[in-house]
Amino acid sequence: MRKVSLAAAPPMPWKNGGGVTRELAIAPAGAGIDDFDWRISCAQVASGGAFSAFPGVDRSLAVLDGAGLRLDFAGGAPVALGAVCAPLQFAGEQAVSAELLGGAVGDFNVMTRRVRWRHRLEVWVLHGRQALRREAELELLYCAAGNLDGWLADARPFSLAAGEGLLFGEDERDGGILLLEALEAARLLRVQLWRR
Question: What residue ranges carry the coiled-coil annotation (predicted)?
Answer without folding.
Answer: none
